[in-house]
Design a protein that fits this description.
- The protein is 80% helix and 0% strand.
- It is mainly alpha-helical and 123 residues long.
């Protein structure tokens, strides 16, 4: 792929990574898994704590989702081979987390506007 295609794929592949990471770590559908994982993060066993922390942190979880997507797509950025896979992987994580932060910011803004409207309506 030329550099333009690689950058295009970077921004497109980061979308499902962000979507999956956000959904598993923040949305109600996976609340049971998150609650279970949060309880397990208090374990005395270090390996258990670290493993279950993955499901409570969207940044951490996005790394594992990126590994899955790299395996499925063989995406490489800038260089061919394993070096390009590593560069592409960390780039995907970074872009996906930008998307998640933007989404979080937008949701907070929408929630704030809804509360302001509710206050105005109640007056």
């Amino acid at each position: 792929m030329n550099i333009n295609e690689q950058v295009y794929w970077l921004f497109i592949l980061a979308l499902p990574v962000a979507c999956i990471s956000w959904t598993v770590t923040k949305e109600e559908i996976f609340k049971g898994l998150r609650t279970y994982s949060e309880n397990k993060t208090k374990s005395k066993n270090v390996i258990t704590r670290k493993f279950f922390f993955i499901f409570t942190c969207e940044y951490c979880f996005s790394h594992y989702i990126v590994i899955l997507f790299l395996f499925l797509t063989d995406y490489q950025l800038l260089l061919a081979g394993w070096k390009g896979i590593i560069i592409g992987g960390f780039s995907l994580v970074w872009i996906a987390n930008i998307y998640m932060n933007l989404f979080c910011y937008i949701r907070q803004d929408i929630k704030k506007v809804k509360e302001e409207i509710k206050d105005i309506e109640s007056k």
